[in-house]
Amino acid sequence: MSRRIDLPDLSPLAIGAAILGAGGGGDPYVGRMMAEKAMRATGPVTLLNVDEVPDGSWVIAASGVGAPTILYEKIPSGREAAAAVQRLARHIGVETFAICAAEAGGVNSMIPLIAAAQLGVPVVDADGMGRAFPGLFMETFHIYGMSGTPACFASEHGDLVLLDRLRDNYAYEWLARGVTMRLGGHAFVADYPMTGKDLRQVAIPGTLQLALEIGRSLLEAQSSHADPVEAVCAAAARGGYGSGLRLFTGKVVDVLRRTSDGLARGTITVQGSGPDAGSVMRIDVQNENILAARDGLPICTVPDLVCVLDAANGLPISTERLRYGYRVTVLGIPAPAIMKTAAALAIWGPRAFGYDFDYFPPTQADVQA
Amino acid sequence: MSRRIDLPDLSPLAIGAAILGAGGGGDPYVGRMMAEKAMRATGPVTLLNVDEVPDGSWVIAASGVGAPTILYEKIPSGREAAAAVQRLARHIGVETFAICAAEAGGVNSMIPLIAAAQLGVPVVDADGMGRAFPGLFMETFHIYGMSGTPACFASEHGDLVLLDRLRDNYAYEWLARGVTMRLGGHAFVADYPMTGKDLRQVAIPGTLQLALEIGRSLLEAQSSHADPVEAVCAAAARGGYGSGLRLFTGKVVDVLRRTSDGLARGTITVQGSGPDAGSVMRIDVQNENILAARDGLPICTVPDLVCVLDAANGLPISTERLRYGYRVTVLGIPAPAIMKTAAALAIWGPRAFGYDFDYFPPTQADVQA
């Protein structure tokens, strides 16, 4: 059943998307401002379930690409995503029935809403990551056989670059990075054009609604003095993800950051407190939180979400804002089954991020070990 | 009057194009091999004068972009330029009436012939540089108001990238470099689409025929034991360029090369002999030979051509092949008037290459000073 996303939804959506961002994906703040501006001009956006898209109708993914922090300095015109979608649809000679998200986590939860509001089309409640990930091929769209190209990149100057046909989605990632860097380090892209029939096969359904519900539950828990972390765990489970596990509670005592291979890498060290006193949690970061290890033992890993929440109010803290002294709760949210097939784990399991072990689900026993 | 370019023309064309390359533009060898292969399959290519293109018919420029030396290691499929032209024509919704050269100097003299042979269309005897230059905006096409985009880049893998609309031709240069680097450092491009009417306004006419005539004259002089340098000078003057001047004769005693800002920069030092004994010539290189200075005094500068010829046989020596001990004749060939308007000198005069003086024509008095 279709619903509407209106202005009051943007704040909880931003919070939920930041949690799905698992520490990365960019702060949804600038995106939320852009979505607010667009929706003030156009009214609410219709959110469709994947089964509401006719088989032969075309859906195009819209997102930002590049370093999200650049958005604070290189201000978007606000029309880029819509321009990219429009140009891509014209390029392939189809009508855009709806927009979907390439990435539900972080700032990219907002970009489809902006483009949809401006183009007067609905958004489909689905994405290709189920969270945030650093690569354009880290998409169920790719994993289950869709081509990222043709794709259209747009800059704030009105520049339009079409990656028309590339040998594969790895070449797409490679070319897209080069184009994005030359467009100033951040750009907007319309990609993975596909029909409703294909979308249903390859997308992770319900992830925008999930982000919205997580955000709403968290805000409601805050205002009713309930436990916001419990509320997030319950909302994730209702949305088709696993019920969240409290992995650790403590104080951030060290944050190490470095940039290599175009990724923000780092390690966060949390000194345990309360039931975790005497233990240490290490969180490895590659743009997103990739792995949580308790006293040296990995206990939660990609593609499951490792989320760092402010212990006081449950709000997510992105890796770029984390620093010494924060009291945090580290939460593990198991990703849904479509993200954990053998094909999916080959793209975004621990080995894809350089670890020499296979994916394993987090367990209560490990957490309490 | 239209003519034909056939297999026996490719060898003199390559020599003449290397002279127009002014030390740069890449060795036409690989391009000539590709053109031979294409023309063996298809027969000769028709060469049209600019006034043979109907006003409303479309001409597309075809060339290689990136470091020409990469062609020796990253072997082209041979179909890239034709694929790029075809895709661009389809993109803008026109029929390709003919191909023209973006750059008559060096390897890019050959690329239009390959695409034209494969597509079964003529080549227009014109280009946008009148020689070789290192930038995609260093084109009379750009100087006199044409847009380089939409442009299509093709790789040997069949990758196609469309730069659809960019803010200006400097953004085009910037994006094109990024795309080319990601396509492996060398790619093929179809760009500056324009009608016959526009082409006549903005192109340098007759430059392919000029290269052909220079090459033929040089080979004929060699076989008749005449002076090949004289033959080159006379052919240039017949082709609408100034009559060449012998700037210097001597031995290469030092070659300094470095790569900075993506350009092959360097300095060549020639110790004078014969009438130039006791003098020294310095040639400054930025991909092409930019400036010739005699005993510290500049005597020939861009956009005029500074060509280094083997003193024994008159054949051009590209900067990458120059080394200690070569006996050389340095020749200055004045470029035609269309390349020396104020608008043109702003793009490729000495100041555009970092010198703090204006363009001046080479004179016999300077040469003998």
- What pair of chains forms the biggest interface? A-B, 23 and 23 residues
CATH superfamily grouping of the largest domain in chain A: CV3147-like domain
- What count of domains describes the coordinates of chain A? 2
Helix content of chain A: 25-40%
Give the DSSP E fraction of chain A (strand runs of 2 or more residues): 25-35%
Main sheet attributes: strand count, strand direction, barrel closure of chain A: 8 strands, mixed
The SSE order of chain A reads EHHEEHEHEEHEEHEHEHHEEEEEEEHH
Shape of chain A: globular
CATH architecture of the largest domain in chain A: 3-Layer(aba) Sandwich
Average residue pLDDT of chain A: 95
DSSP strand count of chain A: 17
- The CATH topology of the largest domain in chain A is what? CV3147-like fold
Quaternary structure annotation: homodimer
> Can you list the strand order of the major beta sheet of chain A?
1-2-5-4-3-9-7-8
Which CATH class of the largest domain in chain A? Alpha Beta
Topology (elements, then pairings):
2 copies of one chain form a homodimer.
Chain A: E1 3-5, H1 7-20, H2 29-42, E2 45-48, E3 58-66, H3 80-92, E4 96-101, H4 111-119, E5 123-124, E6 126-127, H5 140-143, E7 151-154, E8 160-165, H6 169-182, E9 186-195, H7 196-202, E10 204-205, H8 207-223, H9 228-238, E11 245-260, E12 263-272, E13 280-286, E14 288-294, E15 297-301, E16 305-310, E17 327-333, H10 342-348, H11 364-368
Parallel strand pairs in A: 2-5, 3-4, 4-5
Antiparallel strand pairs in A: 1-2, 3-9, 6-10, 7-8, 7-9, 11-12, 11-17, 12-13, 13-14, 14-15, 16-17
